[in-house]
Specification:
globular; 7 helices; 5-stranded parallel sheet; alpha/beta; Rossmann fold
Length: about 180
């Protein structure tokens, strides 16, 4: 089982969406649409189900605006996606996360102190839902989701870390022509 957050839902359902910059390069990641397509193919091949936590879904539906009902129908009609609510078990998990953070001296921990408190609470809900449903990986470009999830033992993969599909034209990929054609 894997999970996605709002940023990945956007990349999955809005193929032309602008991804965040890769922090290691400061530039947008290369060929994100192809990376996402490969991820979905790989997850399908391995029969992985994708947990969509309802707080992430709610944020995504706001982005979808008037098209939200169409995206919701598409999402709920695909067997690979499992929309999961913030329920009793998730509430217990979030309470545990916050109590541990307070013991460390900051209710936001492991998120940075400059993270808005409301955002930290929603990110914890996303991670808690993923965790109680057995997700071993969360696909997210959000640094706070990453910090919170990794602290609970869940791996986080950002769009710039996704594998590129095998190219049909490897000699032409990212290469400089061997001679000047001008």
């Amino acid at each position: 089982m894997v999970a996605v957050d709002t940023s990945f839902l956007g990349l999955i359902f809005f193929p032309g969406a602008k991804p965040p910059n890769d922090p290691s390069t400061g530039a947008p990641p290369d060929r994100v649409e192809e990376r996402i397509r490969k991820l979905l193919e790989d997850l399908d091949t391995s029969k992985e189900r994708i947990v969509v936590p309802t707080p992430a879904l709610g944020e995504f539906l706001v982005l979808a605006n008037e098209d939200a009902p169409n995206y919701l129908a598409e999402l709920t009609n695909q067997i690979s996606f499992l929309v999961k609510p913030f329920d009793l078990m998730a509430a217990v998990e979030v309470a545990s996360m916050e109590l541990q953070a307070r013991k460390r001296g900051s209710k936001r921990s492991p998120a940075p102190e400059d993270s808005p408190w409301q955002k930290v609470k929603v990110d914890r809900q996303i991670v808690a839902i993923a965790r109680i449903h057995g997700a071993h990986t969360i696909y997210s470009d959000d640094r706070d989701v990453k910090n919170i999830a990794e602290e609970t033992g869940i791996k986080v993969i950002s769009c710039w870390e996704l594998d590129l599909p095998i190219s049909n034209t490897p000699l032409l990929d990212n290469s400089v022509p061997p001679f000047d054609l001008s």
